[in-house]
Design a protein that fits this description.
There is one protein chain. The protein is an alpha/beta fold and 163 residues long. The protein has 2 domains: 7-77, Transcription elongation factor, GreA/GreB, N-terminal domain (Helix Hairpins, Orthogonal Bundle); 91-160, Transcription elongation factor, GreA/GreB, C-terminal domain (Chitinase A, domain 3, Roll), CATH 3.10.50. The protein has helices at residues 11-25, 27-40, 49-73, 111-114, 127-132; strands spanning 7-9, 75-77, 91-97, 102-108, 121-122, 140-144, 150-160. The strands form 2 sheets. Strands 5-4-3-7-6 form a 5-stranded mixed β-sheet. The protein is elongated. The two termini are 22 Å apart.
Length: 163
């Protein structure tokens, strides 16, 4: 995520992240502190695996707290304004790959949405996501695959995500 980028989240995802932050700043943080204190009482910290494991978990927890705070501060609930047939974050997009005559439907959204979505999620910054972003039903878009080849997709349908 770039420094000033907005992440669009559903209300459900925003609430989940708020709940996770509250847990990590409260009960989880306290539990880790207790484990560190108990491990310290065992003596020699150089040879104390429990102490080192708890400290490592503490570092991971604090890193996630920082990440969640940043994400919540730089997110908006809903989706950016877009016409009903325009591809935008928070929209469900159906594309056709003419090269294979196959269709795929996915949500253009954040990885925070992907964790709980019942549909495939592509980031707006992924090659496919960036290619279709701003396109409309009936448009074609081309993007570069990891192997360097180009792939063209046709936008067939754009819907609002229902969660």
């Amino acid at each position: 995520m770039t420094e000033n980028a907005i992440t669009w989240l559903t209300q459900e995802a925003y609430d989940r992240l708020q709940d996770e932050l509250a847990d990590r700043e409260g009960p989880r943080r306290e539990e880790i502190k207790k484990r560190i204190a108990a491990a310290r009482e065992e003596g020699d910290l150089k040879e104390n695996g429990g102490y080192h494991a708890a400290r490592e978990e503490q570092g991971k927890n604090e890193a996630r707290v920082k990440q969640l705070k940043h994400l919540l501060e730089h997110s908006q609930i809903g989706a950016p304004e877009a016409d009903h047939d325009e591809v935008a974050p928070g929209k469900v997009v159906t594309v056709r790959f003419p090269a294979w005559d196959e269709e795929e439907t996915f949500l253009l959204g954040s990885r925070e949405e992907a964790a709980h979505a019942s549909i495939e999620v592509y980031s707006p910054t992924s090659p496919l996501g960036a290619a279709v972003l701003g396109q409309r039903v009936g448009d074609s878009a081309t993007y570069t695959l990891a192997n360097g080849k180009e792939m063209t997709v046709e936008i067939l349908k754009v819907d609002t995500y229902g969660g």
